[in-house]
Protein backbone atom coordinates (compact mmCIF):
# COMPACT_ATOMS: atom_id res chain seq x y z
CA UNK A 1 0.00 0.00 0.00
CA UNK A 2 1.31 3.40 -0.96
CA UNK A 3 1.73 6.20 1.53
CA UNK A 4 -1.40 8.25 2.14
CA UNK A 5 -2.35 11.17 -0.07
CA UNK A 6 -3.16 14.29 1.91
CA UNK A 7 -5.30 17.22 0.95
CA UNK A 8 -4.53 20.49 2.75
CA UNK A 9 -7.71 22.56 2.95
CA UNK A 10 -8.19 26.21 3.71
CA UNK A 11 -10.92 27.43 6.00
CA UNK A 12 -12.30 30.88 5.44
CA UNK A 13 -14.68 32.36 8.02
CA UNK A 14 -15.03 28.87 9.43
CA UNK A 15 -16.19 27.34 6.12
CA UNK A 16 -14.27 25.09 3.78
CA UNK A 17 -12.94 27.37 1.07
CA UNK A 18 -14.90 26.93 -2.14
CA UNK A 19 -11.90 25.60 -4.08
CA UNK A 20 -11.43 22.83 -1.52
CA UNK A 21 -14.27 20.44 -2.36
CA UNK A 22 -13.16 19.84 -5.96
CA UNK A 23 -9.51 19.29 -5.02
CA UNK A 24 -10.56 16.97 -2.17
CA UNK A 25 -12.69 14.99 -4.64
CA UNK A 26 -9.66 14.46 -6.87
CA UNK A 27 -7.53 13.40 -3.88
CA UNK A 28 -10.16 10.76 -2.95
CA UNK A 29 -10.22 9.42 -6.52
CA UNK A 30 -6.42 9.45 -6.80
CA UNK A 31 -6.01 7.62 -3.49
CA UNK A 32 -8.55 4.99 -4.61
CA UNK A 33 -6.55 4.42 -7.80
CA UNK A 34 -3.35 4.16 -5.75
CA UNK A 35 -4.82 1.88 -3.08
CA UNK A 36 -3.79 4.51 -0.53
CA UNK A 37 -5.56 6.38 2.27
CA UNK A 38 -7.03 9.80 1.46
CA UNK A 39 -6.68 12.23 4.35
CA UNK A 40 -7.80 15.84 4.70
CA UNK A 41 -6.16 18.39 6.99
CA UNK A 42 -7.45 21.77 8.11
CA UNK A 43 -5.51 24.18 10.31
CA UNK A 44 -7.34 27.33 11.36
CA UNK A 45 -8.92 29.41 14.08
CA UNK A 46 -12.35 27.79 13.65
CA UNK A 47 -11.57 24.54 11.87
CA UNK A 48 -14.35 22.18 13.03
CA UNK A 49 -17.07 23.21 10.63
CA UNK A 50 -14.71 23.20 7.65
CA UNK A 51 -13.40 19.81 8.81
CA UNK A 52 -16.95 18.40 8.95
CA UNK A 53 -17.62 19.71 5.44
CA UNK A 54 -14.39 18.14 4.24
CA UNK A 55 -15.39 14.82 5.81
CA UNK A 56 -18.17 14.70 3.22
CA UNK A 57 -15.50 14.26 0.57
CA UNK A 58 -12.72 12.34 2.33
CA UNK A 59 -12.80 9.25 4.57
CA UNK A 60 -10.50 10.74 7.18
CA UNK A 61 -9.98 14.34 8.27
CA UNK A 62 -7.47 15.83 10.72
CA UNK A 63 -8.00 19.27 12.16
CA UNK A 64 -5.96 21.55 14.36
CA UNK A 65 -7.11 24.72 16.07
CA UNK A 66 -4.84 27.71 16.29
CA UNK A 67 -4.96 29.44 19.65
CA UNK A 68 -5.24 33.18 20.18
CA UNK A 69 -7.70 35.86 19.26
CA UNK A 70 -6.40 36.55 15.77
CA UNK A 71 -8.16 34.52 13.08
CA UNK A 72 -5.13 34.90 10.83
CA UNK A 73 -2.87 31.86 10.68
CA UNK A 74 0.22 32.63 8.64
CA UNK A 75 1.28 30.11 5.99
CA UNK A 76 4.69 29.72 7.63
CA UNK A 77 2.98 28.72 10.89
CA UNK A 78 0.69 26.33 9.00
CA UNK A 79 3.70 24.86 7.23
CA UNK A 80 5.38 24.26 10.59
CA UNK A 81 2.39 22.31 11.93
CA UNK A 82 1.86 20.37 8.72
CA UNK A 83 5.58 19.64 8.45
CA UNK A 84 5.54 18.13 11.95
CA UNK A 85 2.46 16.01 11.16
CA UNK A 86 4.00 14.82 7.90
CA UNK A 87 7.17 13.75 9.70
CA UNK A 88 5.13 11.73 12.23
CA UNK A 89 2.48 10.19 9.95
CA UNK A 90 4.55 9.79 6.79
CA UNK A 91 2.12 10.44 3.93
CA UNK A 92 3.35 9.94 0.37
CA UNK A 93 2.01 13.06 -1.28
CA UNK A 94 0.38 16.35 -0.34
CA UNK A 95 -2.10 18.14 -2.62
CA UNK A 96 -3.16 21.80 -2.35
CA UNK A 97 -5.26 24.12 -4.51
CA UNK A 98 -3.20 26.38 -6.79
CA UNK A 99 -4.67 29.48 -5.13
CA UNK A 100 -2.42 32.27 -3.79
CA UNK A 101 -2.65 30.78 -0.29
CA UNK A 102 -2.19 27.21 -1.56
CA UNK A 103 0.87 28.14 -3.57
CA UNK A 104 2.68 29.94 -0.76
CA UNK A 105 1.94 27.06 1.59
CA UNK A 106 3.18 24.59 -1.06
CA UNK A 107 6.45 26.54 -1.33
CA UNK A 108 6.95 26.65 2.43
CA UNK A 109 6.15 22.94 2.79
CA UNK A 110 8.46 21.95 -0.07
CA UNK A 111 11.32 23.86 1.51
CA UNK A 112 10.66 22.42 4.97
CA UNK A 113 10.31 18.81 3.77
CA UNK A 114 12.75 19.10 0.81
CA UNK A 115 10.05 17.56 -1.38
CA UNK A 116 9.58 18.37 -5.05
CA UNK A 117 6.57 20.36 -6.26
CA UNK A 118 4.45 19.86 -9.38
CA UNK A 119 2.38 22.95 -9.96
CA UNK A 120 -0.84 24.05 -11.67
CA UNK A 121 -2.00 20.54 -12.55
CA UNK A 122 -5.29 20.36 -14.43
CA UNK A 123 -5.57 16.66 -13.62
CA UNK A 124 -3.62 14.04 -11.66
CA UNK A 125 -3.70 10.35 -12.61
CA UNK A 126 -2.03 7.34 -11.00
CA UNK A 127 0.43 5.03 -12.75
CA UNK A 128 2.45 3.52 -9.93
CA UNK A 129 2.97 7.13 -8.84
CA UNK A 130 1.08 10.38 -9.33
CA UNK A 131 1.24 11.80 -12.84
CA UNK A 132 0.47 15.52 -13.02
CA UNK A 133 -1.06 16.86 -16.22
CA UNK A 134 -0.60 20.54 -17.01
CA UNK A 135 -0.84 22.99 -19.89
CA UNK A 136 2.14 25.26 -20.39
CA UNK A 137 3.53 28.08 -22.49
CA UNK A 138 1.90 30.11 -25.20
CA UNK A 139 1.73 27.09 -27.46
CA UNK A 140 -0.59 25.30 -24.94
CA UNK A 141 1.70 22.27 -24.68
CA UNK A 142 0.22 19.38 -22.73
CA UNK A 143 2.82 18.17 -20.26
CA UNK A 144 2.82 15.07 -18.05
CA UNK A 145 5.24 15.15 -15.12
CA UNK A 146 6.13 13.04 -12.09
CA UNK A 147 8.31 13.12 -9.00
CA UNK A 148 11.79 11.63 -9.11
CA UNK A 149 11.33 10.27 -5.58
CA UNK A 150 8.55 8.80 -3.44
CA UNK A 151 7.23 12.08 -2.08
CA UNK A 152 5.99 15.37 -3.40
CA UNK A 153 3.68 18.37 -3.21
CA UNK A 154 1.13 18.98 -5.96
CA UNK A 155 -0.84 22.16 -6.60
CA UNK A 156 -4.04 21.61 -8.57
CA UNK A 157 -5.97 24.30 -10.45
CA UNK A 158 -8.88 24.98 -8.11
CA UNK A 159 -11.63 24.93 -10.74
CA UNK A 160 -10.90 21.80 -12.78
CA UNK A 161 -12.65 19.08 -10.73
CA UNK A 162 -16.37 19.05 -10.02
CA UNK A 163 -16.95 18.28 -6.32
CA UNK A 164 -18.62 14.91 -5.67
CA UNK A 165 -19.56 13.90 -2.12
CA UNK A 166 -18.25 10.48 -1.09
CA UNK A 167 -21.63 9.37 0.22
CA UNK A 168 -20.30 8.58 3.68
CA UNK A 169 -19.14 10.82 6.52
CA UNK A 170 -15.41 10.54 7.11
CA UNK A 171 -13.85 10.27 10.55
CA UNK A 172 -12.68 13.43 12.32
CA UNK A 173 -9.58 13.63 14.48
CA UNK A 174 -8.34 16.66 16.37
CA UNK A 175 -4.58 17.11 16.37
CA UNK A 176 -3.07 18.90 19.36
CA UNK A 177 -0.88 21.91 18.76
CA UNK A 178 2.46 22.24 20.47
CA UNK A 179 2.96 25.32 22.64
CA UNK A 180 3.73 28.31 20.49
CA UNK A 181 3.66 26.27 17.33
CA UNK A 182 1.35 28.67 15.54
CA UNK A 183 3.06 31.80 16.79
CA UNK A 184 3.92 33.84 13.76
CA UNK A 185 5.86 37.04 13.21
CA UNK A 186 3.34 37.96 10.46
CA UNK A 187 0.31 39.80 11.84
CA UNK A 188 -2.89 40.87 10.12
CA UNK A 189 -3.67 44.47 11.05
CA UNK A 190 -6.76 45.01 8.93
CA UNK A 191 -9.36 42.86 7.17
CA UNK A 192 -12.04 44.30 4.89
CA UNK A 193 -14.45 41.83 3.29
CA UNK A 194 -17.64 41.99 1.31
CA UNK A 195 -16.44 44.76 -0.98
CA UNK A 196 -15.27 42.75 -3.95
CA UNK A 197 -17.11 41.71 -7.11
CA UNK A 198 -18.02 38.06 -7.74
CA UNK A 199 -14.90 35.92 -8.05
CA UNK A 200 -14.05 34.86 -11.60
CA UNK A 201 -12.17 31.77 -10.46
CA UNK A 202 -15.27 29.79 -9.58
CA UNK A 203 -17.74 31.35 -11.98
CA UNK A 204 -19.55 29.10 -14.46
CA UNK A 205 -20.23 32.00 -16.77
CA UNK A 206 -17.88 34.96 -17.26
CA UNK A 207 -18.41 38.11 -19.31
CA UNK A 208 -15.04 39.70 -19.99
CA UNK A 209 -14.36 43.15 -21.39
CA UNK A 210 -11.20 44.23 -23.17
CA UNK A 211 -9.76 47.41 -24.61
CA UNK A 212 -12.37 47.29 -27.37
CA UNK A 213 -15.06 48.19 -24.83
CA UNK A 214 -13.65 51.66 -25.28
CA UNK A 215 -14.86 53.66 -22.27
CA UNK A 216 -16.29 53.61 -18.77
CA UNK A 217 -19.74 54.01 -20.33
CA UNK A 218 -19.03 51.00 -22.52
CA UNK A 219 -18.01 49.06 -19.43
CA UNK A 220 -21.56 49.42 -18.09
CA UNK A 221 -22.61 47.15 -20.99
CA UNK A 222 -20.16 44.48 -19.82
CA UNK A 223 -21.65 44.62 -16.33
CA UNK A 224 -25.25 44.60 -17.60
CA UNK A 225 -24.67 41.57 -19.79
CA UNK A 226 -22.93 39.81 -16.89
CA UNK A 227 -25.95 40.54 -14.68
CA UNK A 228 -28.39 39.16 -17.24
CA UNK A 229 -26.31 35.97 -17.63
CA UNK A 230 -25.73 35.56 -13.87
CA UNK A 231 -22.07 35.82 -14.77
CA UNK A 232 -18.95 37.14 -13.07
CA UNK A 233 -17.27 40.15 -14.69
CA UNK A 234 -13.81 39.49 -16.09
CA UNK A 235 -11.31 41.88 -17.63
CA UNK A 236 -8.18 41.97 -19.72
CA UNK A 237 -5.20 43.89 -18.50
CA UNK A 238 -5.83 46.97 -20.71
CA UNK A 239 -9.34 47.25 -19.20
CA UNK A 240 -7.86 47.12 -15.68
CA UNK A 241 -5.14 49.62 -16.59
CA UNK A 242 -7.83 51.94 -17.96
CA UNK A 243 -9.43 51.91 -14.51
CA UNK A 244 -12.78 50.51 -15.66
CA UNK A 245 -12.58 47.55 -13.26
CA UNK A 246 -10.41 46.28 -10.38
CA UNK A 247 -7.36 44.06 -10.66
CA UNK A 248 -9.21 41.28 -8.81
CA UNK A 249 -11.20 40.65 -12.02
CA UNK A 250 -8.19 40.42 -14.37
CA UNK A 251 -7.84 37.17 -16.29
CA UNK A 252 -4.54 36.15 -17.84
CA UNK A 253 -0.80 36.18 -17.36
CA UNK A 254 -0.62 38.33 -14.25
CA UNK A 255 -4.22 37.74 -13.20
CA UNK A 256 -6.54 34.80 -12.62
CA UNK A 257 -6.81 31.47 -14.43
CA UNK A 258 -10.43 30.52 -15.09
CA UNK A 259 -12.38 27.56 -16.40
CA UNK A 260 -16.00 28.59 -16.92
CA UNK A 261 -18.60 26.70 -18.93
CA UNK A 262 -19.22 29.82 -20.98
CA UNK A 263 -16.82 32.68 -21.64
CA UNK A 264 -18.18 35.76 -23.38
CA UNK A 265 -15.39 38.08 -24.60
CA UNK A 266 -16.40 41.64 -25.48
CA UNK A 267 -13.86 43.74 -27.33
CA UNK A 268 -11.09 41.34 -26.36
CA UNK A 269 -8.33 40.99 -28.95
CA UNK A 270 -7.06 37.71 -27.47
CA UNK A 271 -3.34 38.34 -27.05
CA UNK A 272 -1.45 35.46 -25.45
CA UNK A 273 -1.16 37.28 -22.11
CA UNK A 274 -4.93 37.06 -21.80
CA UNK A 275 -5.37 33.69 -23.44
CA UNK A 276 -3.25 31.78 -20.92
CA UNK A 277 -5.86 32.69 -18.29
CA UNK A 278 -8.95 31.59 -20.27
CA UNK A 279 -7.74 28.78 -22.52
CA UNK A 280 -9.52 26.17 -20.39
CA UNK A 281 -12.95 27.76 -20.92
CA UNK A 282 -15.36 25.14 -22.27
CA UNK A 283 -17.21 27.42 -24.70
CA UNK A 284 -16.15 30.83 -25.95
CA UNK A 285 -18.31 33.48 -27.60
CA UNK A 286 -16.45 36.59 -28.78
CA UNK A 287 -17.83 39.85 -30.11
CA UNK A 288 -15.34 42.07 -31.87
CA UNK A 289 -15.32 44.64 -34.66
CA UNK A 290 -12.03 43.25 -35.96
CA UNK A 291 -12.59 40.11 -38.00
CA UNK A 292 -8.87 39.28 -37.72
CA UNK A 293 -8.58 39.55 -33.91
CA UNK A 294 -6.59 36.58 -32.49
CA UNK A 295 -9.53 35.71 -30.20
CA UNK A 296 -11.27 34.34 -33.32
CA UNK A 297 -8.90 31.37 -33.23
CA UNK A 298 -9.95 30.49 -29.68
CA UNK A 299 -13.68 31.05 -30.04
CA UNK A 300 -16.52 28.68 -30.80
CA UNK A 301 -18.79 31.48 -31.95
CA UNK A 302 -17.16 34.65 -33.28
CA UNK A 303 -19.44 37.61 -33.85
CA UNK A 304 -18.13 40.42 -36.04
CA UNK A 305 -19.92 43.57 -35.01
CA UNK A 306 -20.30 46.59 -32.77
CA UNK A 307 -20.75 45.84 -29.07
CA UNK A 308 -22.69 49.03 -28.50
CA UNK A 309 -25.37 47.73 -30.87
CA UNK A 310 -25.29 43.99 -30.23
CA UNK A 311 -24.98 43.83 -26.44
CA UNK A 312 -28.08 45.93 -25.59
CA UNK A 313 -30.10 43.84 -28.07
CA UNK A 314 -28.71 40.65 -26.55
CA UNK A 315 -29.63 41.76 -23.02
CA UNK A 316 -33.16 42.54 -24.21
CA UNK A 317 -33.49 39.18 -25.95
CA UNK A 318 -32.18 37.32 -22.90
CA UNK A 319 -34.80 39.06 -20.78
CA UNK A 320 -37.57 37.91 -23.15
CA UNK A 321 -36.43 34.36 -23.81
CA UNK A 322 -34.26 33.14 -21.04
CA UNK A 323 -32.22 30.29 -22.58
CA UNK A 324 -32.84 27.11 -20.63
CA UNK A 325 -29.14 26.42 -20.31
CA UNK A 326 -28.30 29.28 -17.95
CA UNK A 327 -27.54 28.88 -14.26
CA UNK A 328 -29.65 30.50 -11.55
CA UNK B 1 18.63 49.29 4.19
CA UNK B 2 19.64 46.43 1.91
CA UNK B 3 16.93 45.37 -0.54
CA UNK B 4 17.42 42.27 -2.69
CA UNK B 5 15.12 41.74 -5.67
CA UNK B 6 14.90 38.18 -6.98
CA UNK B 7 14.46 38.30 -10.74
CA UNK B 8 14.18 35.63 -13.36
CA UNK B 9 14.96 35.71 -17.03
CA UNK B 10 11.96 34.38 -18.98
CA UNK B 11 11.11 34.01 -22.67
CA UNK B 12 9.64 37.13 -24.19
CA UNK B 13 5.89 36.61 -23.96
CA UNK B 14 5.44 37.51 -27.62
CA UNK B 15 7.84 34.83 -28.88
CA UNK B 16 7.64 31.07 -29.04
CA UNK B 17 9.32 28.91 -26.42
CA UNK B 18 11.60 26.23 -27.80
CA UNK B 19 12.11 22.97 -25.95
CA UNK B 20 15.56 21.41 -25.75
CA UNK B 21 16.65 17.97 -24.48
CA UNK B 22 14.59 16.37 -21.67
CA UNK B 23 11.71 18.72 -22.55
CA UNK B 24 13.51 21.59 -20.87
CA UNK B 25 12.98 25.11 -22.02
CA UNK B 26 16.02 26.00 -24.13
CA UNK B 27 17.08 29.06 -22.15
CA UNK B 28 19.92 29.82 -24.54
CA UNK B 29 17.61 30.04 -27.54
CA UNK B 30 14.96 32.39 -26.19
CA UNK B 31 14.62 36.14 -26.46
CA UNK B 32 15.02 36.83 -22.75
CA UNK B 33 13.27 39.51 -20.73
CA UNK B 34 12.87 40.18 -17.01
CA UNK B 35 9.88 38.23 -15.72
CA UNK B 36 7.11 40.88 -15.96
CA UNK B 37 6.00 40.51 -12.32
CA UNK B 38 9.60 40.93 -11.13
CA UNK B 39 9.63 44.36 -12.75
CA UNK B 40 7.05 45.42 -10.17
CA UNK B 41 9.38 44.22 -7.43
CA UNK B 42 12.16 46.38 -8.92
CA UNK B 43 9.74 49.31 -9.05
CA UNK B 44 8.83 48.88 -5.36
CA UNK B 45 12.53 48.81 -4.45
CA UNK B 46 13.21 51.98 -6.46
CA UNK B 47 10.30 53.77 -4.74
CA UNK B 48 11.69 52.78 -1.33
CA UNK B 49 15.08 54.17 -2.38
CA UNK B 50 13.41 57.46 -3.32
CA UNK B 51 11.63 57.87 -0.01
CA UNK B 52 14.24 56.55 2.43
CA UNK B 53 17.92 57.35 2.79
CA UNK B 54 20.54 54.66 2.37
CA UNK B 55 18.58 52.06 0.40
CA UNK B 56 20.86 49.78 -1.62
CA UNK B 57 19.19 47.57 -4.22
CA UNK B 58 20.69 44.30 -5.44
CA UNK B 59 19.20 42.09 -8.15
CA UNK B 60 19.78 38.37 -7.68
CA UNK B 61 19.18 36.00 -10.58
CA UNK B 62 19.88 32.36 -11.28
CA UNK B 63 20.27 31.41 -14.92
CA UNK B 64 22.63 30.97 -17.84
CA UNK B 65 24.97 33.78 -18.86
CA UNK B 66 22.80 34.25 -21.95
CA UNK B 67 20.05 35.49 -19.62
CA UNK B 68 22.00 38.55 -18.63
CA UNK B 69 21.19 41.02 -21.46
CA UNK B 70 17.50 40.62 -20.67
CA UNK B 71 18.14 41.51 -17.05
CA UNK B 72 20.41 44.53 -17.46
CA UNK B 73 17.28 46.69 -17.73
CA UNK B 74 17.22 46.54 -13.93
CA UNK B 75 20.54 48.38 -13.77
CA UNK B 76 19.27 50.84 -16.40
CA UNK B 77 16.35 51.90 -14.18
CA UNK B 78 18.51 52.33 -11.09
CA UNK B 79 19.26 49.00 -9.39
CA UNK B 80 22.69 49.37 -7.77
CA UNK B 81 24.16 45.88 -7.99
CA UNK B 82 23.44 42.65 -9.81
CA UNK B 83 24.42 39.10 -8.95
CA UNK B 84 24.03 36.25 -11.42
CA UNK B 85 24.25 32.72 -10.05
CA UNK B 86 25.30 30.73 -13.07
CA UNK B 87 26.79 27.30 -13.46
CA UNK B 88 26.44 24.65 -16.15
CA UNK B 89 25.49 22.15 -13.44
CA UNK B 90 22.40 24.24 -12.57
CA UNK B 91 20.74 23.38 -15.85
CA UNK B 92 17.56 21.42 -15.31
CA UNK B 93 17.03 22.69 -11.76
CA UNK B 94 13.57 21.97 -10.35
CA UNK B 95 11.64 24.60 -8.37
CA UNK B 96 12.95 23.26 -5.05
CA UNK B 97 16.52 23.20 -6.39
CA UNK B 98 16.13 26.80 -7.54
CA UNK B 99 14.94 27.82 -4.07
CA UNK B 100 17.81 25.95 -2.39
CA UNK B 101 20.37 27.64 -4.67
CA UNK B 102 18.90 31.13 -4.24
CA UNK B 103 18.82 30.65 -0.46
CA UNK B 104 22.49 29.61 -0.52
CA UNK B 105 23.32 32.80 -2.43
CA UNK B 106 21.26 34.96 -0.05
CA UNK B 107 23.13 33.54 2.95
CA UNK B 108 26.27 35.16 1.53
CA UNK B 109 24.85 38.69 1.45
CA UNK B 110 23.17 40.95 3.97
CA UNK B 111 19.55 41.91 3.40
CA UNK B 112 16.68 43.57 5.24
CA UNK B 113 14.01 43.00 2.63
CA UNK B 114 13.76 40.48 -0.21
CA UNK B 115 11.30 41.24 -3.01
CA UNK B 116 10.11 39.27 -6.04
CA UNK B 117 7.19 39.05 -8.44
CA UNK B 118 4.24 36.94 -7.27
CA UNK B 119 4.97 34.35 -9.95
CA UNK B 120 6.81 33.96 -13.24
CA UNK B 121 5.34 34.09 -16.71
CA UNK B 122 7.04 30.86 -17.83
CA UNK B 123 6.62 28.45 -14.90
CA UNK B 124 3.69 30.24 -13.18
CA UNK B 125 4.29 28.09 -10.11
CA UNK B 126 4.41 30.91 -7.55
CA UNK B 127 6.19 28.81 -4.93
CA UNK B 128 9.88 29.78 -5.02
CA UNK B 129 9.57 32.95 -2.90
CA UNK B 130 7.86 31.24 0.04
CA UNK B 131 10.34 28.35 -0.25
CA UNK B 132 13.35 30.71 -0.16
CA UNK B 133 11.93 32.59 2.86
CA UNK B 134 11.27 29.30 4.67
CA UNK B 135 14.82 28.09 4.00
CA UNK B 136 16.19 31.38 5.37
CA UNK B 137 13.86 31.25 8.37
CA UNK B 138 12.36 34.69 7.69
CA UNK B 139 8.67 35.71 7.51
CA UNK B 140 7.04 36.06 4.12
CA UNK B 141 4.00 37.83 2.68
CA UNK B 142 2.94 37.16 -0.92
CA UNK B 143 0.84 39.07 -3.49
CA UNK B 144 1.39 42.57 -2.11
CA UNK B 145 -0.29 45.47 -3.92
CA UNK B 146 1.32 48.22 -1.85
CA UNK B 147 4.21 48.07 0.57
CA UNK B 148 5.73 50.40 3.17
CA UNK B 149 8.70 50.02 5.49
CA UNK B 150 8.99 51.60 8.94
CA UNK B 151 9.80 50.81 12.58
CA UNK B 152 11.79 47.76 11.56
CA UNK B 153 8.82 46.15 9.85
CA UNK B 154 7.21 45.89 6.43
CA UNK B 155 3.51 46.71 6.01
CA UNK B 156 1.62 45.27 3.08
CA UNK B 157 -1.85 45.75 1.63
CA UNK B 158 -3.10 43.00 -0.63
CA UNK B 159 -6.30 42.01 -2.40
CA UNK B 160 -8.43 39.08 -1.35
CA UNK B 161 -11.21 37.53 -3.40
CA UNK B 162 -13.70 39.19 -1.07
CA UNK B 163 -11.93 42.48 -0.25
CA UNK B 164 -8.50 43.35 1.04
CA UNK B 165 -6.25 42.97 4.09
CA UNK B 166 -3.18 44.53 5.64
CA UNK B 167 -0.36 42.40 6.97
CA UNK B 168 2.81 43.29 8.82
CA UNK B 169 6.06 41.40 9.35
CA UNK B 170 9.30 42.33 11.13
CA UNK B 171 12.41 42.72 8.98
CA UNK B 172 14.20 40.89 7.55
CA UNK B 173 11.29 39.58 5.50
CA UNK B 174 10.32 38.39 2.03
CA UNK B 175 7.47 40.07 0.11
CA UNK B 176 6.19 39.19 -3.36
CA UNK B 177 4.29 41.80 -5.35
CA UNK B 178 1.70 41.96 -8.11
CA UNK B 179 1.01 44.40 -10.94
CA UNK B 180 -1.27 46.25 -8.50
CA UNK B 181 1.96 48.09 -7.60
CA UNK B 182 1.16 50.30 -10.59
CA UNK B 183 3.08 52.10 -13.29
CA UNK B 184 6.63 51.07 -14.03
CA UNK B 185 9.30 53.59 -14.92
CA UNK B 186 11.15 53.49 -18.19
CA UNK B 187 14.93 53.55 -18.25
CA UNK B 188 16.49 56.84 -19.31
CA UNK B 189 18.86 56.92 -22.26
CA UNK B 190 21.63 57.68 -19.79
CA UNK B 191 20.61 54.70 -17.70
CA UNK B 192 20.62 52.40 -20.70
CA UNK B 193 24.04 53.63 -21.84
CA UNK B 194 25.44 53.29 -18.32
CA UNK B 195 24.12 49.76 -17.89
CA UNK B 196 25.56 48.48 -21.17
CA UNK B 197 29.10 48.33 -19.94
CA UNK B 198 28.19 46.80 -16.59
CA UNK B 199 28.44 43.12 -15.89
CA UNK B 200 26.86 41.26 -13.00
CA UNK B 201 28.89 39.75 -10.23
CA UNK B 202 28.79 36.08 -11.23
CA UNK B 203 28.77 33.29 -8.67
CA UNK B 204 29.30 29.65 -9.57
CA UNK B 205 28.14 26.71 -7.46
CA UNK B 206 31.68 26.53 -6.13
CA UNK B 207 31.34 30.11 -4.84
CA UNK B 208 28.22 29.01 -2.96
CA UNK B 209 29.89 25.93 -1.53
CA UNK B 210 27.55 23.57 -3.41
CA UNK B 211 28.86 20.45 -5.12
CA UNK B 212 27.72 20.26 -8.77
CA UNK B 213 26.42 16.73 -8.08
CA UNK B 214 24.08 18.19 -5.43
CA UNK B 215 22.39 20.71 -7.74
CA UNK B 216 20.56 21.18 -11.01
CA UNK B 217 19.20 18.37 -13.14
CA UNK B 218 21.28 15.81 -11.22
CA UNK B 219 19.13 16.44 -8.16
CA UNK B 220 15.86 17.45 -9.81
CA UNK B 221 12.89 16.32 -7.69
CA UNK B 222 10.51 16.43 -10.65
CA UNK B 223 10.72 15.05 -14.17
CA UNK B 224 8.80 15.70 -17.37
CA UNK B 225 7.54 12.43 -18.85
CA UNK B 226 6.23 13.68 -22.17
CA UNK B 227 4.99 16.76 -23.99
CA UNK B 228 2.22 16.86 -26.57
CA UNK B 229 0.96 19.66 -28.75
CA UNK B 230 -2.63 20.69 -28.03
CA UNK B 231 -5.56 19.18 -29.94
CA UNK B 232 -6.27 21.42 -32.90
CA UNK B 233 -9.33 23.51 -32.18
CA UNK B 234 -12.33 23.48 -34.52
CA UNK B 235 -12.54 26.82 -36.30
CA UNK B 236 -15.01 29.28 -34.84
CA UNK B 237 -18.40 29.72 -36.41
CA UNK B 238 -18.21 33.30 -37.67
CA UNK B 239 -21.35 35.40 -37.86
CA UNK B 240 -21.79 38.97 -39.02
CA UNK B 241 -24.49 41.16 -40.42
CA UNK B 242 -27.92 42.21 -39.20
CA UNK B 243 -27.73 42.68 -35.39
CA UNK B 244 -31.08 41.02 -34.68
CA UNK B 245 -30.04 37.85 -36.52
CA UNK B 246 -26.60 37.85 -34.87
CA UNK B 247 -28.16 38.12 -31.43
CA UNK B 248 -30.41 35.19 -32.30
CA UNK B 249 -27.30 33.12 -33.08
CA UNK B 250 -25.77 33.97 -29.71
CA UNK B 251 -28.91 33.05 -27.77
CA UNK B 252 -29.17 29.80 -29.70
CA UNK B 253 -25.52 28.98 -29.02
CA UNK B 254 -26.00 29.47 -25.28
CA UNK B 255 -29.13 27.31 -25.28
CA UNK B 256 -27.47 24.55 -27.36
CA UNK B 257 -24.45 24.33 -25.14
CA UNK B 258 -26.66 23.72 -22.08
CA UNK B 259 -24.36 25.69 -19.84
CA UNK B 260 -25.92 23.85 -16.90
CA UNK B 261 -26.02 20.11 -17.38
Describe the structure in brief.
Helix content of chain A is 28%, strand content 27%. Chain A is α/β, with parallel strands linked by helices and 328 residues long. In chain A, helix 2 links the parallel strand 4 and strand 5.
Strand order of the largest sheet of chain A: 7-11-6-1-4-5-12
List the total number of helices of chain B.
7
Largest sheet of chain B: 7 strands, parallel
- Give the amount of beta strand of chain A, in percent: 25-35%
**What's the overall geometry of chain B?**
globular
What is the arithmetic mean of pLDDT of chain B?
A: 90
List segments of chain B where confidence is low: pLDDT < 50 over at least 5 consecutive residues.
none
Major sheet: arrangement of strands of chain B: 7-11-6-1-4-5-12
> For the residues shown, what is the average pLDDT of chain A?
90
- Give the termini separation of chain B: 58 Å
Low-confidence stretches of chain A: none
Question: What Rg of chain B do the Cα atoms give?
Answer: 22 Å
Tell me the fraction of residues in β-strands of chain B, as a range. 25-35%
SSE succession of chain B? EEEHEHHEHEHEEEEEHEEEH
Largest interface: A-B, 98 and 89 residues
Structural class of chain B, by secondary structure, is alpha/beta
Kindly list the characteristics that best describe this protein.
heterodimer, A: seven-stranded parallel beta sheet, 8 helices, elongated, B: about 260 residues, alpha/beta, three-stranded antiparallel beta sheet, 7 helices
Please provide a written account of the structure.
The complex is a heterodimer of chains A (328) and B (261). Chain A is α/β, with parallel strands linked by helices. Chain A is built from 8 helices and 18 strands. Chain A has helices at 20-34, 47-54, 75-89, 100-113, 216-228, 237-241, 272-278, 307-320; strands at 5-9, 11-12, 15-16, 38-44, 60-65, 93-97, 116-121, 123-126, 130-136, 141-147, 152-156, 171-174, 187-193, 205-209, 232-235, 262-266, 284-288, 301-304. In chain A, the strands form 4 sheets. Chain A has a 7-stranded parallel sheet, sandwiched between helices. In chain A, a hairpin with a 4-residue loop joins strand 9 and strand 10. In chain A, helix 3 (75-89) crosses helix 4 and helix 5 (216-228) runs parallel beside helix 8 (307-320). Chain A starts with a strand and ends in an 8-residue tail after the last helix. In chain B, strands 7-11-6-1-4-5-12 form a 7-stranded parallel sheet, with helices on both faces. A 3-stranded antiparallel sheet of chain B has the order 8-9-10, with no helix packed on it. Chain B is an alpha/beta fold. The model of chain B has no long low-confidence stretch (mean pLDDT 90). Chain B contains 7 helices and 14 strands. Helix content of chain B is 26%, strand content 28%. Chain B has helices at residues 36-51, 68-71, 73-76, 95-106, 128-136, 189-196, 243-257; strands spanning 2-7, 9-11, 32-34, 56-62, 81-85, 113-117, 140-144, 146-150, 153-160, 163-170, 173-177, 201-203, 222-228, 237-240. In chain B, helix 4 crosses helix 5 (128-136). Chain B is globular, with a radius of gyration of 22 Å. Strand 13 (187-193) of chain A pairs antiparallel with strand 10 of chain B, so a sheet runs across the interface.
